[in-house]
Write a structure and sequence with these properties.
Prot_kinase_dom, mainly alpha, 36 helices, 778 residues, disordered N terminus, Ser/Thr_kinase_AS, Transferase(Phosphotransferase), domain 1, globular, Protein kinase domain-containing protein, two-stranded antiparallel sheet, Phosphorylase Kinase, domain 1
């Protein structure tokens, strides 16, 4: 078991290290392997916790350096087990057999796999970079600094919440006695040469080694590509020593403006001169700033609302195609011609089939009936279509009767399950439908997607055929493969006539399909008022929830179907019902600007300040979308103006961020606080400066917004305008008494920020202001 017992290969065991053996775990499961080590997932028997065991190839018992390496490992592990930091992978101890390190298991594996498998948002990219910088800053801030010396995406692990932890730190210290050339050679074996700094040939570079490696990882995160792809490994190092670096043109064009500043940091980190590379204590401040610039709340709406319109399955598509006979006939004739040339079939049989097909192709029904013989009805064509199927396609009742007379199988199915009856129903051939039913067609026989003839009749809105099928005991509540009943289809497509027939035959009004939608959900979603009224009159459950906990009222409110929404409210639907994100119908109608529905819901007691899971009120959503008429209604109805939503953003923050000038004016005139701050200390004026919202900025200043308010980074609006290189906003802020000497949390004035990031247009503004001040002094 895990403990602090003496290890057989150590003369002086490290008493602070826990030792494990394979007996402490359930069977190992290899999850990764490489030139340096294998990694296993293993569940601890007592702790019931998944752990990772990394077994280095240097730790094989047969190795002549086994005991020395184990001693080094124990010494390093004794130091590493004490390290506890949010972005550093915890070490639990040493496994003696097999020999390796026991550490936390990370569910999403390494960063290199994440970068290949998924398209990562810019916000997440910046977060990963910042978390990596924080982890490395922690290691380098130790006394003495703990060097990583092998920083790469493969050694950055990702947890279930997509936060990162740095692994394998300090382990390269085992190899301190290697020469620089051996370091390079070992890096080639491990696949880490891309991350090695150019000065490695001249000896260890200390903390700046990790800074260089960080810059290459940063490039791979921004581009989601492998650095120096397609280049020979040793050639990479030769190029790097000569000054080559990964191509900047591969950084996506859709990157945010802040990416340019991140690239500037990256270039400084991979500088050829060590002294020009920043320390991680500086790097982490910049990554924090850049990550902060991208942190804005995201209004998350359940994606379960959208209902894909169910259409006939693939098996019926060909049924709707008027050229099906032509396709089958041409295909079969080509095949028969090939058989005739090879002599691999009876010539009489070929001629017989050719005659029938040619007559079908020419639509010569009269001569086809004359030529038809009993032996013809056994013919099968492509996709297992029979002659009876093709006869039904023609719509000729007498031809169908003749095929049936000669023994055609009334319930024959194609390879996709189509029966002659399904073909007749889909093509709305009433007389043929009646004939086939009288000849014994199974009205409940389904195709491969479990569609019955009644499903097709309901889809088509054909109440006459629907009655014929029901009169012959068609199952009224039968479900196809997605759980849709005939009533679902009629309700979706607005076929009131069919819906009435189905209801009169005891169709289950509240039957739910695979996503728990009832027919009333579908009628509400598509705005079919008369069907909704019919269903409600028959006792439909007004507050039944589909996937995502959406009710029919949610759907009608979101889609803007006022009459349906009014009907549901009048019939007793819950106006404050919550979906799985705690959106009410009022939230959804406000978001989409359906002011009439909002007014009706409020009139019937809807909670105007109800919050979603993210703390958004209806006013937040209307403000974010710029729904000025709805905003006016909500304010008139006494909605809270300064209520804090996600990240403590108010409606004014959202309207400013998304540049809705009219909404900003309406909120300010109605008394919204222009100086309210979010969780990071951002005011709406900060957002106006950062997002280049000049008109919104002017309105905020007119309503006494504090021009020198500082957020938690110490930035004023002038700092943000300087970073954006917006000379017009900089001039506007200066004219409104912005403090030119205000310092942020890193002791930067707005001018110093502009100089640092080479924002020339605002530098000119600042230096011009300085000259004006100088001229005015005696």
């Amino acid at each position: 078991m895990a403990g602090e017992t003496t290890s057989p290969f150590l003369q002086q065991p490290c008493v602070n290290v826990s030792y494990f053996t394979e007996d402490d775990f359930l069977p190992f499961d290899k999850i990764a392997s490489g030139g340096f080590a294998n990694v296993f997932k293993a569940k601890h028997k007592l702790w019931r916790l998944d752990l990772a065991v990394k077994c280095s190839h240097l730790l094989r018992e047969e190795s002549f350096s086994f005991e020395r390496n184990m001693s080094h490992l124990a010494e390093e592990t004794a130091r590493m087990v004490k390290i506890r930091f949010k972005y550093i992978l915890p070490i639990y101890g040493i496994c003696t057999k097999p020999a390796g390190i026991v550490m936390e298991y990370m569910q999403n594996g390494s960063l290199d796999k994440l970068l290949v498998r998924y398209t990562i948002t810019w916000l997440m990219k910046f977060r990963i970079i910042h978390e990596m910088a924080m982890g490395m800053n922690f290691l380098h801030s130790m006394n003495p600094p703990l060097l990583h010396l092998d920083l790469k995406p493969g050694n950055i692990l990702v947890d279930e919440n997509l936060h990162i932890k740095i692994a394998d730190f300090g382990l390269s210290k085992w190899e301190d006695d290697l020469s620089s050339k051996q370091h390079v050679e070992r890096s080639v074996v491990r696949g880490t040469i891309n991350y090695m700094p150019p000065e490695l040939l001249n000896g260890p570079s200390g903390v700046k080694h990790d800074v260089y490696s960080f810059s290459i990882v940063l490039w791979e995160i921004l581009t989601q590509q492998k650095s120096y792809a397609g280049t020979n490994t040793m050639a990479v190092f030769v190029k790097v020593v000569a000054g080559a670096r990964p191509c900047l043109k591969l950084i996506p064009e859709n990157s945010p403006q802040e990416c340019a500043q991140m690239v500037d940091l990256m270039k400084r980190c991979w500088d050829q001169e060590l002294d020009r590379r920043p320390a991680f204590s500086e790097i982490v401040m910049e990554t924090e700033m850049l990550f902060g610039l991208l942190q804005f709340p995201d209004i998350q709406i359940s994606n379960s609302t959208k209902i894909p319109k169910l259409t006939p399955p693939s098996s019926s598509i060909s049924v709707q195609n008027g050229t099906i006979i032509t396709e089958i006939a041409n295909s079969e004739l080509q095949r028969l011609n090939l058989l005739a040339k090879t002599g691999s079939s009876d010539e009489l049989s070929i001629d017989c089939r050719r005659e029938i097909l040619q007559l079908l192709l020419e639509n010569d029904i009269t001569n086809l009936k004359k030529a038809l013989r009993k032996e013809h009805v056994t013919l099968n064509f492509m996709e297992d279509y029979t002659l009876l199927h093709l006869a039904v396609f023609t719509g000729d009742v007498q031809l169908v009767k003749l095929v049936l007379k000669y023994g055609g199988s009334v319930n024959a199915q194609t390879s996709r399950g189509l029966t002659p009856l399904i073909v007749a129903v889909q093509n709305r051939f009433v007389d043929l439908t009646l004939l086939l039913i009288e000849e014994g067609a199974d009205v409940n026989l389904t195709d491969e997607d479990n569609w019955t003839p009644l499903h097709f009749a309901s889809q088509n809105g054909d109440d006459r055929i629907g009655r014929l099928l029901l009169d012959k005991d068609a199952h009224v509540n039968i479900k196809e493969h997605d759980g849709w009943s005939p009533l679902h289809l009629a309700s979706q497509n607005g076929h009131e006539n069919v819906a009435r027939v189905l209801v009169s035959r005891q169709a289950n009004i509240n039957l739910q399909e695979s996503d728990n939608r009832t027919s009333l959900h579908l009628a509400a979603y598509h705005g079919h008022y008369n069907i909704a009224k019919l269903l409600i009159g028959q006792g439909a459950n007004l507050n039944e929830t589909q996937v995502g906990l959406r009710t029919p009222l949610h759907l009608a409110a979101e889609r803007g179907f006022f009459r349906v929404a009014r009907l549901l409210v009048k019939s007793g639907a819950d106006v404050d019902c919550l979906d799985d994100s705690h959106f009410t119908p009022l939230h959804l109608s406000a978001l989409n600007g359906y002011t009439g529905i909002c007014r009706h819901l409020l009139k019937h007691g809807a909670n105007i300040n109800q919050r979603t899971v993210q703390n958004w009120t209806p006013l937040h959503l209307a403000s974010q979308k710029g729904q000025i008429t709805t905003v006016h209604l909500l304010i008139e109805s006494f909605s809270c103006l300064d209520v804090a939503g996600d990240m403590e953003w108010t409606p004014l923050h959202l309207a400013t961020c998304y540049n809705h000038e009219e909404v900003v004016s309406e909120l300010l005139v109605s008394g919204a606080n222009p100086n309210v701050t979010d969780v990071s200390g951002w005011t709406p004026l900060h957002l106006a400066a950062h997002k280049d919202r000049l008109c919104c900025l002017l309105k905020l200043l007119h309503h006494k917004a504090n021009v020198n308010a500082a957020n938690r980074f110490g930035w004023t609006s002038l700092h943000l305008a300087a970073l954006k290189d917006n000379a017009v906003i900089v001039k506007t802020l200066i004219r409104n008494n912005a403090n030119l000497e205000a310092e942020d949390g890193y002791q930067n004035t707005p001018l110093q920020l502009a100089v640092k990031y080479r924002k020339q247009s605002v530098i000119n503004v600042f230096t011009g202001e300085d000259l004006l001040k100088a001229d005015s002094q005696p």
